[in-house]
Every structure is written in structure tokens, then in C-alpha cells.
């Protein structure tokens, strides 16, 4: 059972006890937007242009290949086309976006993971009025493999594949590495994550997407 970068990121940043994310909603949605764009790049549906043409240099362009069949992912692809990475991230998941597609995608992914038995949705009432939703581990343990794979790179010094390097870069960008691995040596995992994020393990285009997502989050809180 394979999962997208966005799904793996979600599984890691959900606290197993509280069933809540380890970061604020705005940063989470920005990260989901970056992950969704990266997944489209990896699928071959999206690329960053290297020279001026129908789409200006340094902007996202649809390749016409591997078009997603999911309506929401197709909408994200369409929103990204012709935009700079930073603008695409903001349009899809920024807090100032008129249509926060990342929030909708997050909810869709959570429901899909619950349908696979990976997560369990639990709802409760606050003051008998407001509904609170928790997403706790289900019977199908997918998170363990993801966590072990990332830990092997951050703690044991294993060489990451492209997917794992991207996942670590996203964790680093959203400053949750320590929260995801609270029992590990903070100095070691922080430095390892920074080194991976600064390298080209994930590829130049993907690194640019994550760097731009980080810039969006910094701009939001400054």
C-alpha cells in the first residue's frame, strides 16, 4: 500500500494521543499545499520551466502527462499552472487564499486514510455544542514503517531516497522534527534534517517548492 507525500506527512504530524496536529492550521495547510504540488511534480504532471516559452521561466507548467483523475488534485494542478511556486503555494493553501484547497485536500486525505483503516475518526461535543474531531491510529499500522524509515535517516545516518528526503525537508520546513521524534538527540536530528533540506536529494524543483512554502509561512508570521 503506497501513500503520497501529503499522506505520509499527515500521519507523522498527527499526535497519536490527542489525535490533533503538532502544528497550527495555517502552517499545516501550507505544508499540505507544498506536498500536493510536490506529488504532482513527482508524478510528472507538473514541472518548473527552465526558460521562457508559453509559460515564463521559473513558473509551474502542466506537462500534459500523468494528469490526475481526482477532481481536487486536477484543480490544484490548474491553479499551479503559470504561477511561481510561492504564489502557487499561497493560492492553494495560504491563509489569504479565497479558496483554501489544501484544507479540503487534508480532509479528503484523512477520510481516505480512515477508510483504509490507517486512522480512526473520533468525534466529541464541547459544551454540548461544538464538534471536536480526533484522528487516532487505526488497526492498519502504516505510520510505523514511515516513522522507522525517517528515523533511520535522521538518527542512524542512513541515506534517504528521494521521497524520504522530501518528507524530511517538509518536516524541517514546518519545524516539527523534534516533536515527531521527541526521544531522539535534538542536536543530531536537527543538523541532519537541515543538511538534507539544504541538499539536492529531493531534486532542485522540489527543493524550490519547499523553500517557497517556508517563505510563505515566515511571511505569515512576521
UniProtKB/TrEMBL annotation:
| Membrane topology per record | Peripheral membrane protein
> Which compartments does it reside in?
Golgi apparatus membrane
Q: Which domain of life is it from?
A: Bacteria
The answer on whether this UniProt entry bears the keyword Membrane reads: yes
Q: Which Pfam families match?
A: GPP34 (PF05719)
One annotated Gene Ontology cellular component of this protein: cytoplasm
Q: Does the keyword DNA damage apply?
A: no
Record's protein name:
GPP34 family phosphoprotein
Source species, please? Occultella aeris
